[in-house]
Automatic annotation (TrEMBL):
Similarity-based family: Belongs to the LacAB/RpiB family.
SUPFAM superfamilies found in the cross-reference section: Ribose/Galactose isomerase RpiB/AlsB (SSF89623)
A GO molecular-function descriptor: ribose-5-phosphate isomerase activity
InterPro entries, per the entry: RpiB, RpiB_LacA_LacB, RpiB_LacA_LacB_sf, SPI_LacAB/RpiB
Entry's EC annotation: 5.3.1.6
Record-annotated membrane-spanning stretches: none
This protein's name: Ribose 5-phosphate isomerase B
Record keywords: Isomerase
A Pfam family per the record: LacAB_rpiB
Length: 146
C-alpha cells in the first residue's frame, strides 16, 4: 500500500503524527507538505494529493486542515476520489467498508493526535465489503463519468 499525506498550515503537526504512524505500520508514504509558517490555501495541497490517488500512483490519501472540511471539498472535486471527513473511529471503519473511500480528511482543530492516529489506523486496516455497497459506489462513479 502506498499513501500520500498533505496538510495546510493548520494541519502540520497532526500530519507529522500521521507520518509517524505510517512509519510504525511500515506503510510506504509520501508527505507533500506544507511545512510553512504562514497561511496557505488548502486546495494547493489537497487537489494535487487527490490527483495522485486518482491516477493510481497512490492507493490512499490522508489530508488534514483546521476542520477537515476544506480538504474534503477540494479532494472530492477530483474525479475518482471518495474523500470522507472523519472524526471518529466508527466512521473511519464505515467509510472503508461501505463507501470504499480512498481518502480521508481530518481537522487538527477538531481532534487530537491520539484519536487521529486511531482513526487513520482503523481506516488503513479496514477493507471494502463490496456486495450491495459496490452497486452504490458504481452509481456514484457512473454519475461522475457524465
Amino acid at each position: 500500500m502506498k499513501v500520500i499525506i498533505a496538510s495546510d498550515h493548520g494541519g502540520i503537526e497532526l500530519r507529522k503524527e500521521i507520518g509517524e504512524l505510517l512509519n510504525e505500520m511500515n506503510i510506504e508514504f509520501e508527505d507533500i507538505g506544507c511545512d510553512c509558517e504562514g497561511s496557505v490555501d488548502y486546495p494547493d495541497y489537497g487537489i494535487p494529493a487527490a490527483e495522485r490517488v486518482a491516477s493510481g500512483e497512490f492507493d490512499k490519501g490522508i489530508l488534514i486542515c483546521g476542520t477537515g472540511i476544506g480538504m474534503s471539498i477540494a479532494a472530492n472535486k477530483v474525479k475518482g476520489i471518495r474523500a470522507a471527513l472523519v472524526h471518529d473511529i466508527f466512521s473511519a471503519k464505515a467509510t472503508r467498508e461501505h463507501n470504499d473511500s480512498n481518502m480521508i480528511t481530518m481537522g487538527a482543530r477538531v481532534i487530537g493526535p491520539g484519536l487521529a492516529r486511531e482513526i487513520a489506523k482503523t481506516w488503513l486496516e479496514t477493507d471494502f465489503q463490496g456486495g450491495r455497497h459496490a452497486n452504490r459506489i458504481g452509481k456514484v462513479s457512473e454519475y461522475e463519468s457524465k
